[in-house]
Model the fold of this input.
Amino acid sequence: MMKILFQFKNLWIILFIIFSSILLADNDIDKYIDDILNGELKESKEKLPYLINTYPNNYKVIYIQGLLEDNSEKAVEYYKKLYNFHPNSDLADDAVMKIGEYYYVVGSYIQAADWFKKIPVYYSRSNDIGRALNLYLNCLIVI
Done:
């Protein structure tokens, strides 16, 4: 009986360590996103290969890849990946907006409208809902 309790206690310790490291890593990734959005790219660019290797399918790392990508078409592919694999994440609405903005800028108004329409339909609590609706209506006018 004592051996089972000891193993159970060890399991809880291992689970605690795993979840603690996940939470700490998530906070580090959030810091990199904030840095990028504030124009401080150097550290995030240096850490990106490590983040990709350590957290290859983390939606925040995919978002960082999109933010740091110089080629806008490749950036859109990262945002689409985030949307397709993590549609319920807290960054999915921002990824959708960035995709819509890309298509709007390059003059693909039908595709842009399709992406902007997703914000009120799927992300009704998004901070970008007003802007998305405005751009959606602009697309419809141009079309």
Summary: The CA atoms of residues 1 and 35 lie 52 Å apart. DSSP finds seven helices and no strands in the chain.
